[in-house]
Structures are given as structure tokens and as C-alpha cells.
Amino acid sequence: MDPLKAAPTGTAATGTAKDAAAAAADAAKDKKLRKACADFEAIMTYYLLKSMRRTVPGVSGLGRFPGKDTYDMIMDQKVAEDLSRRDGGLGIQDVLYRQLSGKTGR
Length: 106
Fold this sequence. Notes:
The protein is mostly helical.
């Protein structure tokens, strides 16, 4: 066997390792982008709920009690988070993800 024609050892393994590392980095970046899009949708939904709550007139029989604003804020945050995590959310996160990742699906 001619030593000049023999393939250098480790080259194929190094290329495969680099490809695997690049794929892992892309997967981590993709996961981070999806989470950022879901978090943005949750924040947007929270502000939507907060704005909607301001349009509702107060109930005259109950009046105001200490801590109600804090309770309403926590409730709106939790509802917004749950809406954005359930079955792809309201759809805003998917649109954002496709736009930011360059995957328009066309």
C-alpha cells in the first residue's frame, strides 16, 4: 500500500465531530429563540389582559380591598403564561419564530 495515498487518520472523525457540534449549537440557538418568542407572547398577552381589565368598571357592591391590584396583576401574569404555553399559544410566537429564524414556510 502506498503511504502517500492513505487517508490521514482522524480527519473523518474530526469532520463528524464538528458537524455534530454545529448541529448541537444550532439546536440550542433554536430552543433559545423559541423560548424568547413564547416569553414575548406571554408579556404581550399580559399587557392585553391588563388593558382589558382597566376598561371594566368596578363593581359597586364589593368596593376596593387591600391587595386587589396585586392579586389582579399576578392572576393576569399567570393566565398570560398559561395561554402562551398551551398548544403553541395564541399564534404570535409561531409568527415571530418564523420571521426571526428565516423559516417562512413558503
